[in-house]
Design goal:
Elements (H helix, E strand, L loop, with lengths): L1 E3 L5 H15 L5 H17 L1 E6 L5 H6 L6 E8 L2 E7 L8 H12 L2 E7 L3 H9 L3 E7 L6 E8 L2
Antiparallel strand pairs: 1-2, 2-3, 3-4, 5-7, 6-7
Helix pairs in contact: 1-2
């Protein structure tokens, strides 16, 4: 089930953000994500976020989540811009990211995002989901190359 994030979800959502960034972006020093964690946690509280709740029998996900909370992933939106899609470690590649993206596509006629060029898994995911590369640039905060990708409803 996908629903709007509640204030009580923030600890789990913030931890998924950190864990997923550390896992997906090994080309960026871990300190970058850890140093930005308090600031991002505060921003997440104010953002338009939708969480994916569900049961997952993968042992790693059970360890990652608390007993009272079964959030496996989330999507952050800012108007038609996707700030990010994050899915807990072992729940990845089970359709959760796609479900979150489909949820956003149902509500928006156009979506855009930036993705690191070195994050091939994410680039491939967005291409499979009919996002087109519009331009290549550089993320000023990390110095990494990134793509601007866009999806539009037909």
């Amino acid at each position: 089930m996908i629903r709007k994030m509640r204030k009580t979800d923030i600890d789990r959502v913030a931890q998924i953000w950190l864990d997923t960034n550390l896992q997906a972006h090994g080309f960026i020093p871990a300190e970058y994500w850890e140093d930005h964690f308090p600031e991002v946690r505060e921003m997440l509280c104010k953002a338009e976020l939708y969480v994916y709740e569900g049961e997952d029998d993968k042992p790693d996900c059970k360890q990652e989540r608390s007993k009272e909370n079964d959030i496996l992933g989330f999507i952050g939106l800012n108007e038609e811009y996707i700030e990010g899609i994050f899915v807990c470690g072992r729940a990845q590649s089970h359709g959760i990211g796609r479900a979150l993206l489909d949820y956003a596509k149902e509500r928006k006629p156009k979506l855009a995002l930036n993705v690191y060029k070195k994050n091939r898994r994410a680039v491939n995911f967005y291409q499979r989901e009919h996002f087109c590369m519009k331009e290549e640039g550089r993320d000023e905060s990390t110095g990494e190359r990134e793509y601007r990708m866009v999806w539009e409803r037909n």
